[in-house]
Amino acid sequence: MNSSNLACMGRRCLLLAALVAGGLAHAQGDKPVRVIVPLTTGSTVDTLARALSPPLARALGQPVVVENIAGAGGVSGTAQLVRAPKDGQTLALVSSNHVINPAIYKSMPFDTLKDITPITVVGTVPLVLVATNALPVKSLKDLVAYAKANPGKVDYGSAGNGSVLHLAAELLKSEGGIFLTHIPYKGTGPLTTDLIGGQIHLAFLSVTAAAPHVKAGRLKALGVSTTQRSQVLPEVPTLAEAGLPGYSFDAWIALIGPAGLPKAQVQKLYQDVKATLAQKEVQDIMAAQGIAPVGSPPESAEPFFKAELAKHADLVRRSGAVKD
Fold this sequence. Notes:
Elements: H1 14-20, E1 33-37, H2 44-60, E2 64-68, H3 75-82, E3 90-95, H4 97-104, E4 116-132, H5 140-149, E5 155-158, H6 164-176, E6 181-184, H7 188-197, E7 202-206, H8 207-215, E8 219-224, H9 239-242, E9 250-258, H10 263-277, H11 280-288, E10 292-293, H12 298-319
Parallel strand pairs: 1-2, 1-3, 5-6, 5-7
Antiparallel strand pairs: 3-9, 4-7, 4-8, 4-9, 4-10
């Protein structure tokens, strides 16, 4: 996901403060609350965290430090989280990469499930399959038919091996019974530029990144990856509606802590998230960014992580994407 997809300015700064303020209110003294962003500066989660840290600090009455610990697709930063004291002073915002990494990397310095405390899945971010105007298709059914009639001649770009955009396309290949050639990019910026220019045929993008180009006629939207349509592109059918009934894929953002956080503390955090997601203002903020609120309770967050881990491991195996 590109950092611009979740740019948080002005009133949007209420979101993270409301999500975590109550759950961290137990923190005492002047010790800063660390919000680890296990991604680079300028990434989606980094942009979100830095925009929201001032109101969070005011809500807590103590400093809040957003700390980027980038490397290995989020592994380095999460490794810092799992070693943090179990006092609620250190949390992390993670993305789908958290469950992709174990299948991508040959070794991991922590256990993706056992060494964290899942607090809640804050929301999911639908993707949309878009095509260059040069590709002679108008729908998903057209694409499947064209790809089958022209094996090896249709390609798709992604933000890199093992990225959510890559794995979303791998699922498309599997569900559609088609072959597409993968062209990895270093980020969504050059990917989108080449897609608009016709250098590649297809790609999955976040709905907020794709919407301006779709509405301007620069790209064709063939389907949304989630089981529900996106409020950002309500006229675009889901891929399930468009002809692949078994298709469902989204990116997500979750709030986690180190393993062993007290249950009462975890429940407090969850209740604050749940109450916040019920507020119309927060719902409007998330809808504008194409985020579907979830606010799952801790007892369902853990099974969700397990299911996502298995799902992505299978997709990575099919794709052959492996990193040292």
